[in-house]
Amino acid sequence: MVILFQSPAYQQLHLDFILNIHLNQNKVANLANQRQIIEPLLDWRLWLPPAIMSVALIGLAQYSYLMFHTVAELFAIVISFLIFAFAWSTRSFAKNAFLLFLACGYFWVGSLDLFHAFVYKGMNVFVEGSGNLSTQFWISARGFEAAILLIAPVVAARRLNGYFLVAAFGAVAAGLTTLIIAGWFPTTFVEGTGLTDFKIISEYLIDIVLALALVSLFRFGKNIAVREKVLIAAAIVLSMVAELAFTFYVDVYGFPNLVGHILKLFSFWLIFQAIVVSYLQEPYAALQRSEKRSRSLFENAEISIWNVDLSGLHWALGNLRQGGVVNLRDYMDQNPHAIIDMVATIKISGVNPATMAMFEMEDDDTFLDGIGWVFGEGLNVMLADALLTLWDGAKFFRSEATLYTFDGRALEVLISFPVPETEEGFRSLPVSIVDISDRKKAENEMLIAKDEAEKATQAKSEFLSSMSHELRTPLNAILGFAQILRFDSETKLSANQTEQVGFIIEAGNHLLKLVNQILDLSRIEANELELDLESVSANKVVSDCVALAGPLGTSRGIEITNELADAPESNVFVDQLRLKQILINFLSNAIKYNDDGGTVVIAAHKTENGFLHLSVTDTGIGIAEVNHPRVFRMLDRLGVDAALVSEGAGIGLAVAKLLVENMGGKIGFESQKDVGSSFWFELPLAEPHNATDEIQAG
């Protein structure tokens, strides 16, 4: 089986199969493209009006050929003028200059055709009609038309001035008319003989130009819609066949002449369809689609939307401005009835289903009839704000208000609407109303909870402060008596007793330190901590702290490296005592939680925004990532072995954080379990340009 799959015959068969699939896909794609191209011409409704008109004209020709010719020409002439009227009136919406170029040209082609109809044999409007005169106007109009169709695709992508086009084409039409009336135009028809060679050759040349126009349409018409291109191409083909028909007649009332006019009617109808579809039907269809989408959004929106007519209010405000009112608020204060009068001009034309659900109503007519029940006492304040928004020309109005359901239940809502830029926009303005009752309730509950939390914090701080003071007195007494026992020269203690008294003193000092930290914490939380801010040398403070903490690590072989010892002087704007307190806490933790023989590094650098970044990095046990959010919590030991933390109570870092923040700085850390930790803080440099500003910001 494997050998079969690897054989050249199988591989060739597989390749042929793939190629056949690819070719079939291309055929399907080509068929789809061909279908798209010819689809506009397959609509029977496109051909019905000119077909009915043609049948009527052929019947009319049996009665009076002159009448047939006049009606057929007038039909084409009216189409030419309508093409121009539609294109000119809607030129600002055109996607390109193609149809405007055609429309301006066809206006003057229709004008030449009008002269052709007036001087047709038997009409005798301006002059005695003749076959030659009417044929000369015919050749002029058809040649002019062919040239327009040839050039139009080339200029489609350009920006053209409509007035210039009308004037330029008018000059060409006037020139051709002058040549014909003055007798300078070549003879095209001789009574009794028929068409001259000039006429027949001209028709062939016109067909050649029309063929080139067909090529130009598909060669340069990239910016022309497919439907327009197909309709105009069909019109060109019909014009070419019509011109061939006009090379055969001997009598201007003959059958070839009739066929040519019928084909011309169809050709002009297709040009008309191309322009009407692009300039009228498509924009109108797009407008209808947009209206349907807007209606769908209005009906299916989950928030309440009111369709409001503020045109009367807009007019009333305009009258006040014209009447000399400058300050609307002062005017409303002096004329309270003015608000009521202006509000009376507001009309609500409709509301969406979400409104019915919000106000618990089943039909909008009942809701609109009883709309007065919806508004509460605060309506005048909200409406006054809305009036001022409109008066000041703001872009958007937004206001909170209290509305009521029909059974009296209060709704806290947010009312908003965009301020229209045109007078027409005020006639139909969407006003959105969002029910924020749950949000307001949550906000109120949050404010109550916050107030209770602040009261609890205050009570805790007062309790801690009171307890700290109460504990200090007996602690100091215990420490004092223990010192007396240790150093009393009259009563000598045994070695065992001396050791036990030492334990009492050590535990008492630890407890006193804890009480002092709690007292600091309570003062900070109660905003009672007084800071003595001044310019302090960070280098000196760090050196002092290293000297104090150094002996703690000596017994365990922990080395402390102070990188600030040889660094340039850096002064910070802080409380010197509190800075030492923070550093001692960091250093003691770095030693306490370090490994024997580990290192502690103190480093610092100045930040771009005027702070000194100072860090204490150790190589100790580190902190697991899951415990990072708990580091600065009070009394949280992060599950560390009690043997390692016998000297602490989890208050130092919480106090350090509050102290740093109260001195206008920020604090943080990076840590990895079994690798080490780096605790840092930033305090403002003692520089005039930013120090005090940063302190106040903190």
Search tags:
698 residues, alpha+beta, 5-stranded antiparallel β-sheet, disordered N terminus
Q: Structural class, from helix and strand content? A: alpha+beta
User: Overall mean pLDDT score?
Assistant: 78
| Number of E-state strands | 14
Which spans have pLDDT < 50 for at least 5 consecutive residues?
Answer: 1-6, 27-33, 641-646, 689-698
Rg measurement, Å: 48 Å
| Percent of residues in helices | 55-70%
Q: How much β-strand is present in the residues?
A: 5-15%
- In order across it, which strands form the biggest sheet? 4-3-7-6-5
Question: How would the global form be characterised?
Answer: elongated
Name the quaternary structure. Answer: single chain
